[in-house]
Design a protein that fits this description.
The complex is a heterodimer. In chain A, strand 2 (45-48) and strand 3 (54-59) form a beta hairpin. The longest helix of chain A has 22 residues, at 106-127. Chain A is 44% helix and 16% strand. Chain A has helices spanning 16-28, 86-93, 106-127, 135-153, 160-166, 192-204, 211-227, 230-242, 256-259, 264-274, 290-301, 348-360, 367-375, 409-425, 430-446, and strands at 2-6, 45-48, 54-59, 65-72, 171-176, 181-188, 280-286, 324-328, 334-341, 379-386, 396-403. Chain A is globular, with a radius of gyration of 25 Å. Chain A is α+β, with helices and mostly antiparallel strands. In chain B, helix 2 (88-100) packs across helix 8 (214-224), helix 10 packs antiparallel against helix 11 and helix 10 (304-325) packs across helix 15 (430-440). In chain B, strand 1 and strand 2 form a beta hairpin. A 6-stranded mixed beta sheet of chain B has the order 1-2-6-3-5-4, with helices on both faces. A 6-stranded mixed beta sheet of chain B has the order 9-10-8-11-7-12, sandwiched between helices. Helix content of chain B is 44%, strand content 17%. Chain B is of the alpha+beta class. Classes of the chains: A alpha+beta, B alpha+beta.
Chain lengths: 448, 480
């Protein structure tokens, strides 16, 4: 059984405890330690194309390998209303090829694809009526769609784009987060131009073939990575409770009822709205000559026409007026999630709260771990995430505990509240804070 | 000619010339990678410097001063491979307790506080063949961190209260299997392929965990962790002469305790039970495993490099792309799991209950179809790029280079193993891979097929595949 809830206990204003703790930490951090960043950053070259696309280059010739990252400022938070999961769905479509790759006859294919778009939209429209849908019309549209897809398949070379890319890279993949979508690859350094070509081609000329087959894959993905994992379902519930209006309330992959209604033409619109070059930032790290890389960047990305992209979501999450609670029953292990309203990433309190998260749970010397795990033996594990996963807007601060069988959820919740209040009554010492800050700096090197 | 006309003609020719030469930049840019002229990759595998402490312990050093980071690792030949199955639980607990239990000079809390204060990462771990104690740190902290690392290596505390905690956590981890369909499938499949209580199929029971005591853990530690079994590696930002001198000071007087444990592998014979099995379970998807043993294949077999290329081309290039392209599964593939003593070939994936038969049929079709449609040269080259790439990526950091070299030594591989393996990957031909596919890739009489899923939806389609009688197994509750 899992529980998740947001807000404060016993009638206090939401976020009271954290705000107080944050103020104390803010005072302690007022004296800046003044450390500078790693010297490796001095070697990063940044520049921007006329169409707005930005690049960052860091040569590191240790081994003959290059890693390329392209990040687009579009994520779950940008899904159009009624299209939850579209950002993730489009990420899948980015591997379906182009007008040249993945097809035997693009013109013939396109003619059918246009019909697929129309019928697919009609089917989704009818299915979306749910209990009022006409079963006869649904069957009719489904039959039409299947017939069109079968005809289109004659012109498709299945999976040609990823198989081709496989021949030039060591690995490649992509992911969609709450706020961004990232396409990344690691490749032998002699194939850098192939990376430029493949990435620029799919940015300029994506194909929406096999949309409906890929939608089936996404539905299987949801079953595999979410629905059979109780902790992840609970996390979805927690976010749905923490946000009532702002799109962070939705799962990145979408709910099954959303995914099954996504359409090809919606995906095409989404691409036009968000995948303009100015919405992208690319990074190259590895064994390459910067001058040659710049030449290739200009050649492959420089001519992509600029176009405006949609701004971020307009919704504003209303202030939380009281505690919210939810219970999800699945599986045998119990877990507790507490979530509190977070800060915007540009708000200085965001960084302070991150340090607060380390005070509470970073290692076995942290307050929650020491009390709940080592001393009380009440939890199998406990962790905090202060705005982790929410990078463009204010997210939530999460405390998660896996409760052991000899303790009730209420007992563990009480212990957590006691420790939160203790951050105010027994503030973290300057020495401990410095230790945490120093550790952050040192461990950061290992991520490079 | 009229001079005005001449001028106009000249101007016209000039404009025409400009139009012909000033083609848009993009029109010269290739649009398909086949049109690119790419140079071949040259890669020379980096090698650490090998030396030896005056006390005889081998040391491998690899400098990289790009970042102020160092890793020091002591690695030993030890683990469950050298033990009878009834000692595996104790070995797993040794792995959990080694770091968690503090040292003889510091309680667990003191060690954790010191680690946090310095911002270093101490680790200890025991696997099937190799165990290690490592410290990763910013190089300025070497003088303070190394003694902690030495104490953890030579004088672990195994604090009693942490042993109880480790046992409790291990039991909870076993119980967590019940909620994880993927792990359940792996466990059942291992039992069917190897037998009930053999390496890879052995799971910890409540009674087995509770029976382990501190003496047993200490006996394993002193039997395995001895200077004559250790190789030290240092990677990153350090001075070689200084580090060797420091290591000699810290390890030079290391004398073994107790009796050594034998380092010959425990011998056992897999007891495979080919057939079609269904384990009823209430999950959203069915889990599928289909495979068989490949007893003659190991990591030192001459065919191993070619098998790696075959594995990727088939498992990812054909099976994954086919099942994905058909909308059957998010991630189904086949793989060769090649070990030091034996290997297996199997398909693994998950799908909606109603598609179980389609998924199994697709995997079988791709694997068994290799005889009629062998892997092509482009498929082999694609796979070769990936597999060679794993070798290149394994050399990306100094730590990886050192660890890879030491682990080859501890696995008793020939001195030129890494080089020979890379050469094998680069030189394997399409025909050789085709021959291996004929030899190793065929689902037949020795195949185990396992489905964990909803029996109401799965039983009939599974039976209709006509692969044999469907045998039902009970769904156990682990760790209870």
């Amino acid at each position: 059984m899992l529980q998740s809830w947001t807000g404060s206990r016993r009638g206090r204003e939401p976020g009271w405890v954290l705000l107080s703790a944050g103020v104390i930490l803010l005072l302690l951090t007022a004296t800046e330690t003044g450390a500078s960043g790693p010297a490796i950053f001095d070697r990063v070259e940044e520049y921007q194309l006329d169409n707005g696309m930005q690049f960052q280059l860091l040569p590191r010739p240790d081994v003959p390998m290059v890693t390329g990252y392209i990040l687009f400022k579009v994520g779950n938070v940008d899904n159009p209303p009624g299209q939850i999961g579209m950002a993730h769905m489009f990420e899948h479509m980015a591997f379906k090829g182009t007008d040249r790759i993945g097809t035997r006859d693009h013109e013939a294919e396109l003619a059918i694809q246009d019909s697929v778009a129309v019928v697919g939209a009609e089917l989704a429209n009818e299915m979306g009526k749910r209990e009022f849908a006409s079963a006869e019309r649904v069957d009719q549209f489904r039959g039409l769609l299947d017939a069109l897809l079968e005809r289109q398949a004659e012109f498709i070379v299945p999976m040609e784009w990823p198989m081709l890319y496989d021949g030039y890279t060591y690995n490649f993949n992509a992911y969609t987060s709450q706020d961004f979508t990232v396409y990344h690859a690691t490749l032998p350094s002699n194939n850098l131009e192939a990376w430029m070509l493949m990435e620029s081609e799919r940015l300029q000329h994506p194909s929406f073939r096999e949309f409906y087959t890929e939608r089936d894959v996404v539905m299987e993905e949801r079953r595999e990575v979410i629905e059979d994992r109780p902790q992840r379902v609970a996390r979805e519930l927690m976010q749905a409770l923490a946000f009532t209006v702002f799109p962070y309330c939705n799962p990145i992959i979408g709910y099954m009822g959303d995914i099954e209604l996504l359409t090809q033409d919606q995906a095409e619109t989404f691409y036009r709205d968000y995948y303009g070059p100015a919405n992208g930032v690319a990074a190259l790290v590895g064994d390459f000559d910067p001058a040659e890389a710049r030449r290739l960047i200009e050649a492959y990305f420089g001519d992509i026409p600029a176009r405006p992209c949609r701004p971020g979501p307009a919704m504003v999450e209303p202030p939380q007026q009281g505690q919210r609670r939810g219970i999800h029953r699945q599986g045998s292990e119990r877990a507790l999630y507490l979530a509190f309203p977070g800060y915007h990433p540009t708000d200085r309190r965001h960084a302070v709260a991150r340090l607060l998260g380390s005070v509470l749970s970073r290692d076995k010397t942290s307050r929650l771990d020491k009390r709940l795990d080592l001393q009380e033996g009440a939890v199998r594990s406990i962790w905090t995430s202060f705005n982790g996963g929410f990078q463009r807007y204010a997210g939530v601060f999460i405390i998660c505990a896996k409760v052991l069988e000899d303790f009730t959820n209420e007992q563990v919740e009480d212990m957590i509240w006691e420790e939160l209040e203790r951050v105010v009554s027994e503030p973290v010492t300057a020495e401990k804070l410095l230790e945490i800050q120093t550790s952050y700096r040192k461990k950061y090197y290992f991520t490079l | 000619m009229n001079s005005r006309i001449s001028c106009c003609l000249g101007a016209g020719l000039f404009v025409l010339a400009i139009c012909l030469t000033a083609t848009p930049a993009g029109s010269e840019t290739p649009r398909h990678p086949a049109d690119l002229d790419l140079s071949p990759l040259t890669f020379e595998r980096p090698e650490p410097v090998r030396t030896e402490l005056p006390c005889g312990i081998p040391v491998l050093l690899f400098e990289n001063h790009d970042l102020p980071l160092v890793t020091v690792t002591a690695r030993l030949q030890m683990g469950t491979r050298y033990l009878a199955p009834d000692r595996h639980t104790a070995c797993h607990l040794l792995s959990r307790l080694w770091k968690d239990g503090g040292t003889k000079s510091q309680t667990p809390e003191e060690l954790e506080a010191r680690e946090a204060a310095l911002g270093i990462t101490l680790q200890a771990w025991v696997g099937s063949m190799i165990g290690y104690v490592s410290v990763s740190l910013v190089s300025q902290d070497l003088p303070e961190a190394l003694p902690l690392w030495r104490d953890l290596l030579r004088r672990p505390g195994f604090a009693a209260e942490r042993l109880e905690r480790a046992k409790d956590r291990m039991l909870k981890d076993v119980q967590a299997i019940n909620d994880n369909p993927d792990r359940l499938a792996d466990l059942y499949f291992a039992r069917l392929l190897f037998g009930e209580h053999t390496p890879g199929a052995h799971e910890q029971t409540r009674a087995g965990i509770e029976a382990v005591d501190e003496q047993e853990i200490r006996a394993l530690y002193s039997g395995f962790v001895r200077p004559e079994h250790a190789v030290i590696g240092v990677a990153g930002d350090f001075d070689p002469d200084e580090i060797v001198a420091q290591l000699e000071r810290l390890l030079g007087d290391w004398t073994p305790m107790g009796d050594p444990l034998p380092r010959e592998p425990y011998t056992w014979t897999p007891q495979s039970r080919p057939g079609v099995y269904l384990v009823p379970a209430e999950f959203e998807q069915s889990q599928i495993r289909i495979g068989y043993l490949v007893p003659e294949m190991t990591t030192v077999s001459p065919d191993y490099p070619a098998v790696r290329i075959l594995e990727f081309a088939l498992g990812y290039g054909r099976v994954f792309y086919r099942t994905r392209g058909d909308g059957l599964s998010y991630g189904t593939g086949t793989l060769f799991e090649v070990g030091e003593d034996f290997s297996r070939f199997y398909g693994t994936g998950s799908t909606g209950h109603e598609k179980v038969d389609d998924l199994i049929a697709a995997v079988r079709e791709e694997v068994n179809g290799l005889r009629d449609t062998p892997l092509s040269a482009p498929e082999v080259e694609m796979s070769r790029t990936f597999v060679v790439g794993t070798v290149v990526q394994d050399c990306e950091t100094a730590r990886e280079v050192v660890v890879d070299c030491i682990d080859n030594m501890l696995r008793d591989r020939p001195a030129d193993y890494a080089e020979a393996h890379l050469t094998g990957l680069q030189k394997t031909t399409v025909d050789e891979i085709g021959a291996l596919a004929d030899l190793y890739c065929q689902f037949g009489d020795s195949t185990v097929i396992l489905v964990i899923g909803d029996p109401e939806q799965v039983s009939t389609p599974l039976a209709e595949l006509n692969l044999g009688e469907v045998i039902r197994l009970d769904l156990e509750r682990f760790g209870e």
